[in-house]
Amino acid sequence: MITKVFKFGGAAISTPTLIANVRDIIVSHSSSKLVVIISAMGRTTKALDIVFSKYLKDKEHGLKLLDQVVDDHAAVAISLGLDESKYRTAIERFIIENLSAVEGSRNEYLIHDQIISLGELFSTTLLTEYLLAQGLLVKWMDVRNMIMTNDSYGNATVNLPGSKVKISKKIKKQLPTASIIITQGFLGSDKHGHTTTLGREGSDYTAAIFAYALNVESLTIWKDVPGIMTADPALFSDVSLLEKVSYREAIEMTYYGAKVIHPKTIQPIQNKGIKLYVRSFIDLKSTGTVIGDPGAQTYPPIIVFDDNVILISITRIDFSFIDEEHLSIIFSKLIECKLRMMIMRNSAISFTLCIKDADDRSLTKFHEGLKDKHKLVITKGHQLLTVRHYEQKILDDLIKDRKVLFEETLDRTIQLVIEKQS
Ligand code: ASP
Ligand code: MG
Where do the DSSP E strands lie in 24-179? Predict the structure, then answer.
């Protein structure tokens, strides 16, 4: 029986030394059977994003850049003492499979996912080969046979019941001969058998789905930070570690920009009451943060920033009320253009909303879709500041000399859209 799921992100496996560190962590937990979810190494996903944009314009140029990504992985394989040509053959097969599946297609989103998904396929193959060479009983599994999604490439929706059945069946089959299962975060597949992805930084969510499907005791997300902090240590000096956090607190913090875990991670584990540990892969003595149901608990003020949010103000050209019908038109457009709303407010004739950073194509589509009957003012590049359990003094310090464009308070949570400091 699997009792634990681990997830290691790109930073945890970015160098040969850190990959050896991951081995040590896995070995020290080898009394339980583990499922280990892995992201792409280091900044591979970003590099593949560039490969994709070049590939669209000039296939050969894109493929040349992809060769570089393969070479970088091969160099790590050599440092780890692996057979380079065996590794290259294994990962080049993924390139051939994924690209031949979209030969001739003009669906950019589909092509994007076939390229961007290579990072996880490369990294899991590398780690598996390495752990096997180190004598561990490891099995590589293709997550695309287990996570079923729709075809919203780039941000696919997971069919949770269907995936749950596949995960438990396929993993169970491996258990007699393997004690560590390695598989990819971030990826899934649709009904056509095409690779899909779950949204940037989506590997945490994959790990939560596995934890849910296998009904494990705990999920551990290994990070390069000590756990969940009261604010981003890169921005503030006096931050402290939150040792216990409720599911609700975690979901609210991450939804509004706390980057430590992906916001979608919480729901599946909350549904089964599974504990989530967020802890450091460097400082192994520190126990980090545990997310669960800690009962009645008081929190210190928690500060979360989300950079690059967009503020949109919408009024009807004919000066009529913004009523439920108009709101439903606006909401349908948001869904169609895949824009994610963070906060909103309506008045008699206007509707103001703050959305997550989005590409120009989606924003233009949104504008075009509404401009016949509405006037839209769209401004970009603001910051969304969320302070939970706030105290006025802290808030005053935070927004001193800053221009506040929008403000919303609910209970002891305040949210402000503020102009970015230059
Ligand atoms: N590799 C993917 C990304 O960078 C998924 C992840 O890291 O969670 O977005
Ligand atoms: Mg990552």
Answer: 33-38, 138-140
